[in-house]
Amino acid sequence: MSTSMKRLGKWVSLVSKRGLSTSCIQKDVSENGVKSLNLYSAINQALHIALDTDPRAYVFGEDVGFGGVFRCTTGLADRFGKNRVFNTPLCEQGIVGFGIGLAAMGNRAIAEIQFADYIFPAFDQIVNEAAKFRYRSGNQFNCGGLTIRTPYGAVGHGGHYHSQSPEAFFCHVPGIKVVIPRSPKEAKGLLLSCIRDPNPIVFFEPKWLYRLAVEEVPEDDYMTPLSEAEVIRQGCDITLVGWGAQLSIMEQACLDAEKEGISCELIDLKTLIPWDKETVEASVKKTGRLLISHEAPVTGGFGAEISASILERCFSRLEAPVARVCGLDTPFPLVFEPFYMPTKNKKVCKFGCCNEGCNSTWLTAGGTRATSNRS
Amino acid sequence: MISLVCSYKNNRSRSLVQNKVSLLLGIGGSRSTTTPPPLINHHRFRYSSSQPFVASSTRYESSKAQAQLEDFQQHDDQVIDFPGGKVAFTSEMRFISDTSHKRVPCYRVLDDDGELMTHTNHVQVSKELAVRMYSEMVTLQTMDSIFYEVQRQGRISFYLTSMGEEAVNIASAAALSSDDIILPQYREPGVLLWRGFTLQQIAHQCFGNTNDLGKGRQMPIHYGSNKHNYFTVSSPIATQLPQAVGAAYSLKMDGKNACAVTFCGDGATSEGDFHAGMNFAAVMEAPVIFIIRNNGWAISTPVEDQFRSDGIVVKGQAYGIWSIRVDGNDALAVYSAVHTAREIAIKEQRPVLIEALSYRVGHHSTSDDSTKYRPIDEIEYWKMERSPVNRFKRWVERNGWWSDKDELELRSSVRKQLMHAIQVAEKAQKPPLEDLFTDVYYQLSSNLEEQEKLLRKAIEKHPKDYPSDVPL
């Protein structure tokens, strides 16, 4: 536990100072092959490694040639040439369709969709083509080399079209994987796994963390396994499950709860499909309570799927209904973003341990914590 | 004068070459069909005209809009140095009109009677090749009529014929190399037949049995074969077009002597993916050939309800892609155009658009009755008078390469093969239950493992709820 706390501590503390700053916090110190990197730099490092280790890897998308609007592709075109790192026309269905064809010829096609909000023109190519490519051909063809990178989520000032979290749409599609990292170190390891995984993958990058989250990132080539959730904080009263940018908010909620004597277990799901039910199940069987958070609107979000699955598996062990603290069922608003978001205190209120005004009985439902049946 | 054909930025040499070849290929020229078509050295391009197209004194009449463009009073000495290239000024405010009154002519080699047109130039076809092309066209035709009946008898769930488009199918396949990657729509099974996919394999797919390479997962006619470089058919329209550009880009990067070839119909050109494919191909300079079968009908939608342009051929220019309109019912013209397009695509590393004018003689599919929306006379006319198979046959016969005896033998042999293939496919076992779950991912995921276990338990309890012919 202490090591995981330590590991998480640094980027959490930086993220908690969240504002509109775009300053790049990056130490240029390398100690024992570990470097302090922000999230976009970690992504950039992963892309450098991916292109360096596989001559059949390509990076393309809108504006990637000069380094990308979020700087994730910086230096790639200079190092690997314009044949392997190139701009495409402004056409998402074209980017993904092109990527499928490229991947189907045995290449690693790393496509960038500039914002997840703009991925929908490519929805048909992802859902009807990429996801079914292997299945429909009886495994004669596949586009497993395709990885679609796309920044998602709130950024403080993004309004409707630069803030959305559309992951749930893609979690309804057998044949693709959906992966979301929480931090720079995770981003690098998971992205490399995605690029090298033999299945098409949509990789959502939490754009708010691009510059804000800084973490010690190993400089070498490493991969973080897919479909394996990680317990990043152990506890015995409540299980919290989330992904991406929500993890740091959840971590803060855990710290607040701890002051009140509530012990939270925090799980980063990392891969949304196919997801690691077992890790969540084991945790909920221990704590008896589950709280899920995502930025996407609560209705039809992936939290609903987790909730249903855990109810199926842990019904008799649950001491309270599964709770969801998520985005509101509105379009993502600009001025009202602070109201829309699943904030730390919305979670803490759910625990019933914040100041007056919160009369949540959630934590005490089904008996007191002291008498709850935990193993 | 500004270049009419070309819009490449600052690439003069290419513009000139392109203009010349455009002239040679007769794209958009004002010639009537009786004037000599352009010169093409059959296996090697010879740019015989040294006169740049734009300097020609012949007014470019094929398109009103283009004529208007030439008429613009331009100040050639004054240009806007605009991102994308220099553009001359004009002091006239004039709009370019929507359509031309003269349509882009259609390249053909054989006339309606299967006679070589006078002064025609085309890529030579040997006796051996011609006989094989004709035989495959007959095979495709026979396959379609028999499988159509088999569907009508309720033995397969669905079928879709290529009737009326046998020439586009077979002649395009014949003009390509087996290394060329095909990304089909669904009305091009002739390409697959040409490459050696057997009638037995066709039957296995249509019956969705254990020998179907697609493991019984897709409706009939969704063929695919890795061995034959023929990507598996998917039902969504035009999705294969941008994919073909990706495949072509891979061939380009690998320096392969091959191109990607993708097919679609007139209806597909209205899809966003058509635009995506064309534009990406031009920008990526990808060796890809788009063969658009303009057969007049997208299910019940006639081309008049599909677009207001002069068909599809004119769209190439707007994207910066070479294009040609060809008589899709003339096997020799299709062969020549595709053969030449392939050379352009590979040698020049650039895309080519071919619009093949044809007619969908069959219904859209077995789920459609086209007599509800188009006159039977029209269908009959195209079926009988304009049949691409009959036209090509006349030419082959006239060359003394084909006899009535050959015809009888071929038709009887194909029929026998088909009957046998259908019997075998019908008797073959269905694919095993495990094929339901495999290939969703590279490896079986844990949720699928769980679901398979649950399903097997359900089958054990209520076996009668499930088809008995699927091995468990």
From TrEMBL, chain A:
Q: What is this protein called?
A: Uncharacterized protein
From TrEMBL, chain B:
What name does UniProt use for this protein?
A: Uncharacterized protein
Q: Which organism is it from?
A: Trifolium pratense (Red clover)
